[in-house]
Every structure is written in structure tokens, then in C-alpha cells.
Inverse folding.
């Protein structure tokens, strides 16, 4: 096994608008233990931004790359001297619990984080298991050393509704935190054990909360007091559970029974190395290696385990489900991740994919529909469409094992046959009237992708009537296409378009598009590119319009979504609806244009710098695009098992695909100039198609790609082009 964690730089994306998590965790773990900054705002959605210099504590749960802030739960903070457990402004931080820190004292690598707190002269080191955080604090000599447990503070929208801490003995405390934020009913339980007996433990209520909100909030601060020698280490183990304090204790007993901090760091590193070694690449330079492996690392922060070692979990129905037959997960940013992250998981994580689907099916049983954006057992209904349908359909169509296929089909069909969130209009009119629903075009186009996906599963299972029905609905995207302007736009009724119309203008979450404009959403038809080509009047007109997307210049307007970033013309790589667009050229036999565009994106919009992402990481989707595109192929249609070739930037790759099989990629004559695929062989035979099927990857084998500095005829013939139903 290669040491690949050396290429991961967790700071990438912590600057700019990347919103990535910084701290200690293991792949897909419940615990993301890291610093919470004081400063709040859009760029602090993960709790940390590189521009900051004040830390208020080290929380055990964080989001990575989202556009909304939440979590930050169960914050611990070592301190010296009198500390007021109240919030303060950055300028007044000395009256609160925060401390200045400097980046030159920080260290971060997979599974480990360290920093020096200038105010208290305390060194902090952190590591983690799946359900436990492990703290190492190095104190100065003091008669007034303490560790503060803060249940009040959260990130972004998160506000505590009830907190509780109790002392169990001279070295153990336990409690819980209930809060409301992006997820309205969050509940997390914890237990903490100190390596040294406390000389005293103090608990206090938060009067600022009880007087400011009509919510019960008691015993939300604790202070564990110690006498310390110079450079004395105090260790703290903290276990979490979504179910109970007793389950948290059991999680600690199972995962972190001892006190060997360095061994736990090594195990976390090994866990990351195991997952990173599922793809072993070689590239021309260290920067490319860092960008690739940090991206792969970012794809595995979430979904996060949300069940205990005994498989107990708290469901979407708010009930405790005991001894489940699967591992339950949370943090499903599906509007983002259905596009590339989940298709990547079907290659690298098929076993986890089964439990992702099992979790979604459990959510369906508990809330009556598949999840939209699920967080901490809560449906947030964030973004539009029914994106879980595409994930479940993809797993069904690819033959992923380990979940109930009959229930999966039932869940997809029932979800798409509901009346809420504009679906009643889809069923009645074939479109969502623009004057009935905000974001009607984005919503309708996403529904068409989901409908097509259900239809494909129906076809595979022999449900002919359902196939015909959902396939028809999968073509309803046509009802949003205005042939006169050549854009997808809001339709009021069968004869009237919404006026006035400007394809450049974006009004954040208030017009017909979701974080986008007409230029970007016109291409959101990954399920039927051939049909979209027909709407434009043929390949020539389609190609001309697609070329124009990358050249068009215009003002987005003063109310534009900040998510529209990474612009090349009007193509917006910083937001997910654009992610498939560069690969559409394969459908018109011009794969060299895809090569041009994906190389430009990889070379200019991804770097190994702190601000190395051009938009929100979005829980792994931005990074999944890079991982797959670096390997040279991408799932333009996220549910048909077809990966379109682009322009690989790795020289070779060995991908572990399960069952002791590997799929190897050998790229010849690759360089910044030689970016065009000239020819390739698969298992020694000439391969002329501009796409590769999932089954060909998972069967294992060897793909050899020869690159050149000029486009060739490879992949251009009609017979070699991708098509929707693969």
C-alpha cells in the first residue's frame, strides 16, 4: 500500500469560497473534530476559514463545502485563568473563551490537526475514530487550568434548544445537545473521559439563551478544573451517539478503549490510506498529485455515519431504530452529489453505496418519500427536484448488491407520483407554471431527469406501462424550451412565456432558476442529449450554441447567486448544473472540444492552493468532478452507466474495483500540449467509442490511451458516440 496521505493538503478549499472542513476525521466518519472560528458569514459555513485568526473551541461535527452553515456541536476548549462563557466580538475576544492562533503553529493532515492557542499558551492536538474524538492538550504550569465544554455555540443557523451536562465521576462527564438550524430537530449525545481526575467540575446555564428564546436550555456550559505542571498533557476522549448517552459510552468502549494518542493518529492515517489506495495514480508533478488526492479525500468526508457501533440510529421519523441490518448515514447533499460523487462511489465504494441506498430507503419508509437534502435525521428540502431518485436508479441499473430492489422501485415511483413541490403540475400540465412556483424551470428540468431514471429501471424490470409513462415525463424538459430564443425559460401556460426574459440575469432563489440563469439551465438535459440536439434543429445549431456558452458575456444582475462562480463565458463550474456540459460535445462527434474545455477547467479552476476551488466544495461534488475528469472520463448522464471520455491528466492509474480486480489506465505521450485522445485499446483491442460503460470498468482490465497535440478521428463516427439508453 502506497503512502498517499502525504499528497493530501486539507487546507485546499479553506480559503476563497471552498468552505471545506479542516480538522481530524476518518473516511465517512460521524466525527469531524476541528476548530470553530469566531467570525461568522457565508465563507464560514464549515466553521473555519483560512482568513480568520480566532478559535472559540473545537467542535465534533462539521459540514464540508456547503452553502449553509450548521453543526459545530459539542465544543471543547482548553483555557487558563478566568474565562467568561459568553459570546463576544472579535475585538473583545478576551472577555469570551476564544484565543488568537497563528497559521505557522497549525498542522493538518488526514486524521490529525494541531494548533497553539496564544492566549492560553496551550498546544492542541486532535485525532478521531468514526464515532470518537481524541484531544491532547499540553498545558503550562497553572493552578487555574480548565477545559470548557460549550453546548451553546453552533455554526451558521444552528441554535441550541436544549443542552445538558452531568458529572459521572471524577474523570467522566456526559450530556446531550438538541438544536435547530438548517436541520430543525438535531439531537446528539456524548460522553467524555479525561485522562486526569478533575479537581472540580462546574456547570452553568446560558441566561442569554433562556432569556432570548422561548426554548428550554439548561446546563449548557461545563468547566473541568485542573492543576497542571509545565508541559503536562491532558487527554480527552469524546464519543458521540445519535441515540443515547449509553450508546455513546458503548461506542467509546468499542472504538477508543485506550489512551494511545499516537496510535490513534496512525490508525486514522491508515484508514485514509486504505481508501485513497483505491485509486493509485502517477502524474507529472507534485502539485497535480496534491490536487488529485486532496480531491479524493474531500469526496470521503460525507456522507457521514449516523448510527452507533450496534447499528442503532435515530430515524427521520424521530424514532430509535435498533440493530439495523445496515449502517445508517447522514449529510446527503444530493442535488450536488448525484451528478458525479455517487457515480464515483459506485466504482470505488460499491459496498457503501448499498448502505447509502439502504439509508435512503429507510428514510422513504419513515417520511414517505426519498430524501432531498438529509441532515442529522432531518429533511431540509434544500434545493429542487428529487435527486435521490437518480442515485437509487443508478444503483439499480448498475446491479449494486445489498439492498431491496423491489422497495427501491416502489420508493422511486411513489416519490415521483406525489403532488408536493410542483409535481402536481408536472402530472397535470407536463410543466410547472412559472407563476405557481419559484424556480419552476430548474425544478422541472430536475424532475425530468428523475422521471427518465425511474423509466429506465421500469424498463429493466419489465414494467412496460410504467416505462412508457415515466419515459414520456422524462421528455417534459421540452416544455421549457423556447425555440424562438433558444433557451429554457419560464412558461406561464401552454401559449405564454414569462416576460421579461434575459438569459443572463440571475435572482438568487427568487426567479425561474436555482442558482443560475437561462444560459446555464438550457443544457440541463443529461438524460436525453439527442432530444436536446433536435430541439436546437440539429447538430450544427446545437454545437454553435454550445460553443457560444463558453464565450457569452453579460451581467448576471445585482441579485445574482454567489454560487455562480468559476465562469468561462456563461459556463459556471462553481455550481453543479454546469458540471456535465463540457462532455456534451461527444454526442455531436467533437470530443476534442471536450478535451479543450476539461483541460482548461482542471488547469485553471483547480489548484493545490488554499483557495484552490472555484466554488463551494458541495460535500464532495466539486472534487468528484476533478477525480473523474483527471482519470479521463465522466458520467454525463448520472444514471445510465456511461462515462464519457475527456482528457486525462494522469499518466497512469490503477483503480481497485472490487472482487480482487483492478482497472488500469495507461496514458501515453501525455502533456499539457498533448491533450487530445488519438486512439486507445481496451484489453489489447482497438477501442473507438468516446465513452466507456460501468460494467467494462468493473470487469477490470487495461485501457491504453495515446495522446496527441492535434484532434483525430477517434470517437467521431456516429456509431462511436454515446446515446441516452446505454
Amino acid at each position: 500500500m502506497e503512502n498517499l496521505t502525504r499528497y493530501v493538503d486539507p487546507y485546499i478549499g479553506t480559503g476563497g469560497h471552498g468552505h471545506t472542513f479542516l480538522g481530524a476525521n476518518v473516511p465517512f466518519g460521524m466525527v469531524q473534530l476541528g476548530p470553530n472560528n469566531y467570525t461568522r458569514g457565508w465563507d464560514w459555513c464549515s466553521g473555519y476559514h483560512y482568513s480568520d485568526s480566532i478559535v472559540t473551541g473545537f467542535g465534533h461535527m462539521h459540514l464540508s463545502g456547503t452553502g449553509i452553515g450548521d453543526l459545530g456541536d459539542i465544543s471543547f476548549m482548553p483555557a487558563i485563568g478566568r474565562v467568561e462563557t459568553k459570546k463576544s466580538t472579535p475585538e473583545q475576544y478576551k472577555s469570551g473563551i476564544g484565543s488568537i492562533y497563528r497559521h505557522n503553529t497549525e498542522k493538518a493532515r488526514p486524521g490529525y490537526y494541531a494548533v497553539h492557542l496564544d492566549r492560553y499558551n496551550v498546544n492542541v492536538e486532535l485525532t478521531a475514530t468514526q464515532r470518537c474524538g481524541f484531544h491532547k492538550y499540553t498545558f503550562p504550569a497553572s493552578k487555574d487550568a480548565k477545559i470548557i465544554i460549550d453546548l451553546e455555540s453552533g455554526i451558521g443557523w444552528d441554535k441550541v434548544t436544549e443542552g445538558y451536562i452531568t458529572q459521572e465521576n471524577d474523570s467522566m462527564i456526559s450530556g446531550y445537545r438538541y438544536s435547530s438550524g438548517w436541520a430543525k430537530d438535531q439531537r446528539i449525545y456524548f460522553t467524555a473521559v479525561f485522562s486526569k481526575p478533575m479537581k472540580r467540575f462546574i456547570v452553568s446555564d446560558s441566561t442569554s439563551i433562556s432569556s432570548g428564546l422561548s426554548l428550554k436550555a439548561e446546563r449548557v456550559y461545563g468547566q473541568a478544573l485542573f492543576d497542571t505542571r509545565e508541559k503536562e498533557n491532558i487527554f480527552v476522549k469524546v464519543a458521540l451517539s445519535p441515540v443515547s448517552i449509553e450508546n455513546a459510552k458503548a461506542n467509546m468502549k468499542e472504538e477508543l478503549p485506550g489512551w494511545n494518542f499516537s496510535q490513534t493518529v496512525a490508525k486514522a492515517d491508515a484508514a485514509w490510506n486504505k481508501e485513497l489506495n483505491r485509486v493509485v495514480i502517477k502524474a507529472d508533478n507534485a502539485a497535480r498529485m496534491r490536487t488529485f488526492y486532496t480531491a479524493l479525500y474531500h469526496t470521503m468526508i460525507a456522507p457521514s455515519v449516523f448510527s452507533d457501533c450496534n447499528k442503532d440510529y435515530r430515524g427521520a421519523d424521530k424514532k430509535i431504530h435498533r440493530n439495523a441490518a445496515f449502517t445508517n448515514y447522514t449529510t446527503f447533499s444530493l442535488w450536488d452529489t448525484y451528478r458525479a460523487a455517487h457515480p464515483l462511489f459506485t466504482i470505488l465504494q460499491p459496498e457503501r453505496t448499498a448502505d447509502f441506498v439502504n439509508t435512503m430507503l429507510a428514510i422513504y419508509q419513515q417520511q414517505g418519500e426519498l430524501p432531498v437534502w438529509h441532515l442529522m435525521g432531518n429533511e431540509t428540502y434544500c434545493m429542487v427536484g428529487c435527486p435521490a431518485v437518480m442515485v437509487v436508479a443508478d444503483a439499480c441499473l448498475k446491479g449494486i448488491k445489498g439492498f431491496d430492489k423491489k422497495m427501491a422501485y416502489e420508493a422511486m415511483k411513489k416519490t415521483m407520483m406525489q403532488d408536493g413541490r410542483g409535481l402536481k403540475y408536472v402530472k397535470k400540465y407536463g410543466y410547472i407554471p412559472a407563476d405557481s412556483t419559484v424556480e419552476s424551470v430548474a425544478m422541472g428540468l430536475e424532475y425530468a431527469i428523475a422521471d427518465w431514471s425511474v423509466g429506465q429501471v421500469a424498463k429493466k424490470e419489465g414494467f412496460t406501462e410504467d416505462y412508457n409513462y415515466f419515459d414520456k415525463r422524462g421528455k417534459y424538459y421540452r416544455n421549457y424550451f423556447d425555440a424562438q430564443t433558444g433557451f429554457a425559460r419560464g412558461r406561464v401556460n401552454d401559449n405564454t412565456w414569462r416576460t421579461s426574459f434575459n438569459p443572463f440575469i440571475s435572482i438568487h432563489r427568487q426567479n425561474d432558476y436555482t442558482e443560475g440563469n437561462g444560459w446555464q439551465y438550457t443544457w440541463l438535459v443529461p438524460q436525453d442529449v439527442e432530444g436536446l440536439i433536435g430541439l436546437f434543429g440539429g447538430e450544427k445549431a446545437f454545437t454553435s450554441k454550445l460553443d457560444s456558452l463558453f464565450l457569452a458575456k453579460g451581467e448576471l444582475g445585482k441579485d445574482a447567486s454567489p454560487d455562480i462562480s468559476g465562469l468561462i463565458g456563461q459556463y459556471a463550474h462553481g455550481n453543479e448544473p454546469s458540471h456535465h456540459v463540457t462532455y456534451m460535445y461527444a454526442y455531436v462527434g467533437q470530443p476534442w472540444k471536450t478535451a479543450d474545455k476539461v483541460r482548461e477547467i482542471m488547469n485553471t479552476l483547480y489548484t493545490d492552493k488554499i483557495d484552490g476551488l472555484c466554488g463551494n466544495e458541495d460535500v464532495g461534488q466539486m472534487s468528484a468532478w476533478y477525480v473523474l475528469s483527471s482519470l479521463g472520463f465522466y458520467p454525463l448522464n448520472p444514471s445510465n452507466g456511461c462515462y464519457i471520455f475527456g482528457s486525462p491528466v494522469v499518466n497512469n492509474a490503477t483503480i481497485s474495483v472490487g472482487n480482487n480486480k483492478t482497472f488500469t489506465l495507461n496514458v501515453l505521450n501525455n502533456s499539457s500540449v498533448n491533450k487530445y485522445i488519438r486512439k486507445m485499446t481496451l484489453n489489447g483491442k482497438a477501442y473507438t467509442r468516446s465513452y466507456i460503460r460501468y460494467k467494462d470498468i468493473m470487469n477490470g482490465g487495461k485501457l491504453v490511451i495515446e495522446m496527441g497535440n492535434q484532434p483525430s478521428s477517434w470517437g467521431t463516427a456516429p456509431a462511436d458516440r454515446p446515446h441516452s439508453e446505454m
